[in-house]
């Protein structure tokens, strides 16, 4: 059997080389994993806390700790430092803007970092809801370089003094990393 070595053969070989090189480049440059769903629930305790020196007098500080389960982390603990801008309280809506920095720690010690921006609203005597957006800003271990974003909702029940209470926060959105991410339980 005779091998064909005409112009068609050269063209086929060129196409094959382009496909192989293109595939290698895609593998080499495509290190970031595709965005995956991110969701979960945290059961929390919160309390008013002392603000760092230099914080405006119209800002209240809150610490939050909790436990729960988040996708890609499994059983999780959280530590949150939040601020509430009391000067921007709206009597028309009973809402005030807030922001926070959160650290979620998986059972194996890997951490995921988030920032949030939202609005906390009183919904009744001793109850409130905080809704907003989160942005994943990195992490440690398998979450090094993580990114993503989504929405959160917190339903809170305040103690009689309104200085502390309990809450449940749910998260829904996406997460991406340069690594394969999976749940750690």
What's the short version?
The chain is mainly β. It is built from 1 helix and 8 strands; from the N terminus they run αββββββββ.
Describe this structure in words.
The protein is globular. The N and C termini lie far apart (61 Å). Strands 1-2-3-4-5-6-7-8 form an eight-stranded antiparallel barrel. With 185 residues, the protein is mostly beta strands. The protein has one helix spanning 7-29, and strands spanning 36-49, 59-70, 74-85, 95-106, 111-124, 127-139, 147-158, 164-176. The protein has one domain: Porin. It contains one helix and eight strands. Helices cover 12% and strands 55% of the residues.
Descriptive keywords:
single chain, 185 residues, mainly beta, Porin, eight-stranded antiparallel barrel, 1 helix, globular
Helices and strands, with pairings:
Elements: H1 7-29, E1 36-49, E2 59-70, E3 74-85, E4 95-106, E5 111-124, E6 127-139, E7 147-158, E8 164-176
Antiparallel strand pairs: 1-2, 1-8, 2-3, 3-4, 4-5, 5-6, 6-7, 7-8
